[in-house]
Amino acid sequence: MALPKVVNSAFGVFFEYDTPRIVHIRSKKVGVINRFLQLVIIGYVIGFAIVYKKGYQEFDNVKGAVTSKLKGVVYTNFSQPGLDGRIWDVGDYVIPPLENSAFFVMTNVLVTPDQTQSTCEEDPTIEDALCETDADCPPGVPIIAGNGVRTGTCVNSTRNETLKVCEIEAWCPVERDDSTSRTPDPALLGSQNFTVFIKNNIEFPKFDVRRRNLPDNVNDAYLSRCHYNPHHDKDRYCPIFTLGTITSEAGHLFDAMAAEVLYYECGLRNIIGFDNDSQLSTCRFNASDPVNKFCPIFILDDIVNLAGHTYDGIATLGGVIQMLITWDCNLDNDVEDCLPEYSFRRLDRGDYKLSRGFNFRYADHYKLGNTSARTLYKAFGIRFVITLQGQAGKFSIFPLFTNIGAGVALLSIATVVCDVIVLYILKARHFYRDNKYLDVKGDDAYEHGVMQDQPLLPILTSFTVCLLCFAVISLWVCTVGALESCALCLGLW
């Protein structure tokens, strides 16, 4: 019966042993294919995995901290209260004064001065504030997205005589947001010439290497006048940026990002190549300058420009700019060659139809006689987010041996491919099979486990095909960078 034969055959495998047999085949076709595959694999391992991907190095990710300091003064002279003949300095336009790896610069503002807690009409542009009778204004109920709580009275709107609105108890008068309060340009457009000093201290803990973004070969005088310029060999390391440069590098106009203004009449560091504070205070970042490309002082206009935008374009609606500091270092070279690279991009899009730009409100509280009062500011501007990334590599024998071992394992693919060609493709495949496989029976061979009507060749054929598929999959895994996984898999052969 078939079942006992299958059982005997399966049981007989337990008493068998396979050992590799070396067959030296003299064939031009097979020889050329074998050497070609070996050269391809060796070229891949040496050229790509070891040299290009630096497979002889071990790596460590960068860790560090970033601080920023802004400088600049702007003068506003508009007819709106709070903006007529006023000087704005860092204490006015940088809100909050300190953030973690970020800073905000106000480029425009909506001012509602001298608000007191009293009763007044609600803004008619708020749909929930519209009414016909007092019954539409239940007392004590706040208005959704409004400014206060209903008093129970429906009054005529002084802003739109065709409408009636609920009277509210709130900080009065409420903020006004309409075209009558607009100005043609952002109030603080001059902020594009403000400078920001970026100090970045980093380390690679695995290698005990510390750096900063200030060049060591410059002095305080240079740092005080340098500005970041990505096209200058020296100034592209200057850590002082202008806001206009940042927004331009992000691909936007500064005045378009600086929020539209409305008013109401009421270890290692990024300090590299500088000798002293005087030289550092005069430098400005310039990417094309050999020294100033390390200057950590940036003009804001330059930052925006380097982000691919213009400062006046981004200042209209506000936005978010990313400043990316990249440390990619080869520690097999001099550690002094470990230098930062700056790049900029805008994180938000300037073409959103709803909720464009970046803004928030804050208030200054004071006394008007014996009455508590406040001036409400709706600040529009640009938020700069500083991101640190990078890695360092250094020679290590362990990753090198890992990649070499993986390459040796990959060479077995050439043997598998050539075996398939010899045993299943060439005309003399039957001859090669007879010489490739040899069945040797010992004195104690398990005869009953052999199925005479089921030759071993189909089983070997299936195994070889599966092995070839496995080799192809392993090679594909290697090409996407998982060389160690491939070596482990091939080692199971």
Automatic annotation (TrEMBL):
Keywords: ATP-binding, Disulfide bond, Ion channel, Ion transport, Ligand-gated ion channel, Membrane, Nucleotide-binding, Transmembrane, Transmembrane helix, Transport. Signal peptide: none annotated. It comes from the Eukaryota. Its main location: membrane. It is found in: Endomembrane system. Glycans are attached at residue 193. The chain crosses the membrane at residues 32-52, 404-426, 456-477. ATP binds at residues 69-71, 195, 359-361, 378. One of its GO terms (molecular function) is channel activity. GO terms for cellular component: endomembrane system. Gene3D superfamilies: atp-gated p2x4 ion channel domain (2.60.490.10). One of its GO terms (biological process) is monoatomic ion transmembrane transport. Disulfide bonds join 120-172, 131-154, 137-166, 226-238, 329-338. InterPro entries: P2X_extracellular_dom_sf, P2X_purnocptor, P2X_receptor. Belongs to the P2X receptor family. This is Purinergic receptor. It comes from Batillaria attramentaria.
